[in-house]
Design a protein that fits this description.
The structure holds 2 protein chains of 2 kinds.
Chain A (H helix, E strand, L loop, with lengths): L4 E3 L2 E4 L5 E6 L6 E7 L6 E7 L2 E4 L8 E4 L6 E5 L8 E8 L8 E2 L3 E5 L1
Parallel strand pairs in A: 2-11
Antiparallel strand pairs in A: 1-3, 3-8, 4-5, 4-9, 5-6, 7-8, 9-10, 9-11
Chain B lengths: L3 E4 L2 E5 L4 E7 L6 E6 L6 E6 L5 E4 L2 E5 L5 E6 L8 E8 L9 E3 L3 E6 L1
Parallel strand pairs in B: 2-11
Antiparallel strand pairs in B: 1-3, 3-8, 4-5, 4-9, 6-7, 7-8, 9-10, 9-11
Classes of the chains: A mainly beta, B mainly beta.
Amino acid sequence: EAGVAQSPRYKIIEKRQSVAFWCNPISGHATLYWYQQILGQGPKLLIQFQNNGVVDDSQLPKDRFSAERLKGVDSTLKIQPAKLEDSAVYLCASSRDRGQYEQYFGPGTRLTVT
Amino acid sequence: GQQVMQIPQYQHVQEGEDFTTYCNSSTTLSNIQWYKQRPGGHPVFLIQLVKSGEVKKQKRLTFQFGEAKKNSSLHITATQTTDVGTYFCAGPSSGGTSYGKLTFGQGTILTVHP
């Protein structure tokens, strides 16, 4: 079974530029999550999708972050414009469904904003 | 909001010594999950505990869920260099529409000296 795929693995941009991350979850997984992990901290949920609908985006900075999951499979997360404090690893995870299911994480995208 | 705290933040041990990390939630949890993140890697699911007072073992790892379902622990017997990494506990966030949303602790970083 293929794992969660993410690209790019690394990205360096200047502040005020825009950036997009892509995620392909495990086949058949209905729930997809985007997390932000700042160095030395645990992952913080940004947005949760159930199929192609948003379940929770309460911690997503909506003035600069946006995400979509067209057709309920792949997902993209965009930041526009980026700030220095957005430097972090962005992790995508998927699970079979909502509820008490384990989450499978992708390798993450390490973003550096200069 | 819900808080999940872990102690200690760091633990340095000699190979062969035991290791324990503790997780405490500000609210009662329906379940708790544990993840391991190797240096430079992504979180990998270890186990889920559901029942009050539950104890589960995976080889040298012992996981426990408190009677009040507000705390948990992970104990590693006779650590090996392969145990190096950050161990996170995660509990479901409160809220009806955020079913499946996890709140992660800040993690315990384990270093094992050969």
